[in-house]
Amino acid sequence: MSSTELPGVRAVAAAASPAVSAVRVAEGEELRAVALPGLTLTVRSRPPERTGLPPALFVHGLGGSSQNWSALTPLLQDVVDGEAVDLPGFGDSPPPDDGNYSVTGHARAVIRFLDAEERGPVHLFGNSLGGAVATRVAAVRPDLVRTLTLVSPALPEIRVQRSALPTGLLAVPGVAGLFARMTRDWSAEDRTRGVMALCYGDPGRVSEAGFREAVAEMERRTGLPYFWDAMARSARGIVDAYTLGGQHGLWRQAERVLAPTQLVYGGRDQLVSYRMARKASAAFRDSRLLTLPDAGHVAMMEYPEAVAQAFRELLDERGGS
């Protein structure tokens, strides 16, 4: 859900569709474009320490990108062969040809990528919207998922936190355009501070260098002609997914997940309520829970060491693969 980025990165040109400016890539990372019918995905990778490691895929949240995993992936490159995907319309991936930004549409993009690359089964990670997407993938294609790690997954809540309401309002037709017009004079610094205040348990943990790089990325993203459309349609997709019942409901699909699941919740999360941790633990049949009282919505960015350790313990339970 975060548009924040991380310190220690350099600018390089991506191999995907034209962007306003070069996307940023951390030292040691690589970008590549994967062309599928009606869809092009930008994929960020960090070479594993050795060959033969099991594959992993990382899926970001609303308004985020594959860069949201750049603090975590270096901590796991000795145990997985990891890749992080930019969902359609986010990061450096262009919009999908069919304009489908629903949770199902994003899940279908992930499935198509894994099938095309023959990467599955993978250790699948998801944050926020990416957590909902990963849950759906694991439920409908269990053959593609070894384990599931969900950081503040956007699963339906009856009582949504007040601080999350503005994000939900983006789903209302016309609101995104109205907001874009109302905030056209806001600086990238103002926008970035607002996102960090919403997504971090303690925005003060972000270094000055990290903040300046996040501002530059904010300027790049808001300059994309499809930025607000992708945000609005994806927010609408989350709201629509929350209202689905029956076999397509996200909680029902969570109950169908067979993969061992690691849940991570932050005590200061303003977008996904901390109280949902207990419900999620009960829904996923083979789950374990990590709660981080001081973390916000993006624990993998704030406390990557803790998230990495939780995954390593999950991996140990499976014999390291």
From TrEMBL:
UniProt KW keywords: Hydrolase
InterPro entries on file: AB_hydrolase_1, AB_hydrolase_fold, AB_hydrolase_sf
Domain AB hydrolase-1, chain residue ranges per copy: 57-310
Transmembrane segments: none
Protein name (record): Alpha/beta hydrolase
Cited Gene3D superfamilies: alpha/beta hydrolase
A Pfam family the protein falls into: Abhydrolase_6
Molecular function terms, GO-annotated: hydrolase activity
Coiled-coil boundaries: none
SUPFAM superfamilies referenced in this protein's UniProt entry, alphabetically: alpha/beta-Hydrolases (SSF53474)
Taxonomic superkingdom: Bacteria
